[in-house]
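Table 4 source record.
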Amino acid sequence: MKARYMFEVYASEYADQSVVLHGKERLTVYRTYGPKDNDKIEVYAGQRVGNR
């Protein structure tokens, strides 16, 4: 899966969700990074075949 989106969210707002809705797209979370010094987590998501 190619990196399509990277979202930065506060750690307190992210609870290991595996799916992200972005507009009309349903994206699968495949990697997270953090929390960083600013208490944010980078959430990487993209589309998989059959995940629309």
